[in-house]
Amino acid sequence: MKKIIAFGATVLLGILSLVFVTNPAQAAPTPPHNLTLSQITNTSAYAKWQTVTGAEAYSVYANGVRKGPGTAAGTATITGLTPCTEYYIQISVRVGGVWSPKATGSGSKMMTTLGCGTVAPVASSTTAAENFNWGTPIAAGSDEFNGTSVDSTKWNNYDNIAGHAGNGRRMAAQSIVSGGVLTQTGQSDGDTGYLSSKYRPGTMYGKWEVRMRTSARDPEYHPVLLLWPDSGGDNTTDDEVDFAEGTNDTSQIKFFLHYGTPGQGLQTSAAKVIDTQEWHNYAVEWSASGVRGYIDGVLWFTDTSSTHNPNQPMHQAIQLDWFPDGTATSESWMQVDWTRAYA
Q1: pLDDT over 80 (residue 35)
Q2: Is the pLDDT of residue 128 over 50?
Q3: How far apart, in whole angstroms, are the C-alpha atoms of residue 124 and residue 39?
Q4: Contact criterion met (CB below 8 Å) for 227 and 339
Q5: pLDDT-based confidence at 63, cuts 50/70/90?
Q6: Is the per-residue pLDDT at 283 higher than 90?
Q7: What is the pLDDT of residue 183?
Q8: How far apart are CA 197 and CA 319, in angstroms?
Q9: Of 94, 36, 97, nearest to 66 (Cα)?
Q10: Alpha helices in the chain (DSSP H)
Q11: How far apart are CA 300 and CA 69, in angstroms?
Q12: Are 174 and 322 in contact (CB under 8 A)?
């Protein structure tokens, strides 16, 4: 009996060896690509990707955590996301029982869920005005820059005044309207542009949206779209809303809400990795409930604190600020395709 058992084991091992030789381990399949994303609610998103031949299943990951299966059609709803949070979306596919590595593919990789304490409509446009039904722009506070010079009925184009923190000069010649865009250029000596809107209804609150891009700028030049107090900032509060500001990190755009007593440096902020050399739509909504910021129609900044909310009328400004650091400065520019104000 023992010999029979030993013989049987030998045969069985031979069979297993034969199977192993004739069926080598299958290589991991190529992950899906052309991944795109769209937002559905404040806690979920819809993902779509190019299908893989022979796919048996897909898995969707958000920041490395599996969020559910996809379908053979290459689509999935990603659920269980935290409101107002940025996610890195990845897809893995199973072919022949083998899972591919997780990969983002060549399409959209990052998405920010809506929410931030409020449920917002689905983003179907790249402008906040359309997605949130802001209505018709106010003509006096809007400009398509289709003329041949800065419209003096809409803008103060300051000339030969000190620049930000006394650095460089604000020069009218550095703000040019041509070809349907406004271009502000910062020279190597710190001469740069600054426009201040004449649209000042004298009341609190409003909405503004601006389409902007920049050059591959010198980190010493900071493009800024902002709201500034009608009073000139010379009262007892440090109100300022920089709803799109480039800093010395040229891979990011930032949002700063300044508040409190001047000199204290109180602020809330947000930062987003973005290619500012591409056109993007930056918007700010200021209401009695707080301040919200949008990029390409998607909410990305919210501050609903009553003690942070500006308490005085404000107006829009467009400026390219110079922050010299002791090194040589290269010429840089920012362009604005249009700016629109809403009630």
Answers
A1: no
A2: yes
A3: 9
A4: no
A5: confident
A6: yes
A7: 96
A8: 11
A9: 94
A10: 2-22, 128-131
A11: 27
A12: no
User: What is the residue-wise DSSP string for 9-55?
Assistant: HHHHHHHHHHHHHHSPPPPPPPPP---EEEE-SSS-EEEE----TT-
Answer with the residue of higher pLDDT: 339 or 2: 339
| Look-up of token digits 């979306």 | 89
d(CA 181, CA 147): 9
What's the start-to-end Cα distance of the chain, in Å? 94
Phi then psi for residue 113, to 5 deg, are -65, 155
- For the record, the structure tokens of 290 come out as 């707080």
Token representation of residue 326: 């002791």
* Mean model confidence pLDDT for the chain: 85
Place of tokens 């053979």: 72
How far apart CA 198 and CA 255 sit, in angstroms, is 23
| Tokens 């600054």, located at residue | 194
Bridge partners for 295 per DSSP: 282, 298
Nearest residue to 318 (alpha-carbon basis) of 134, 154, 160, 81: 154
Length of the chain: 343
List domains and CATH numbers for the chain: 36-112 (2.60.40.10), 128-342 (2.60.120.200)
The Cβ of residue 183 has, within 10 Å, a number of other Cβ atoms equal to 18
Bridge partners for 33 per DSSP: none
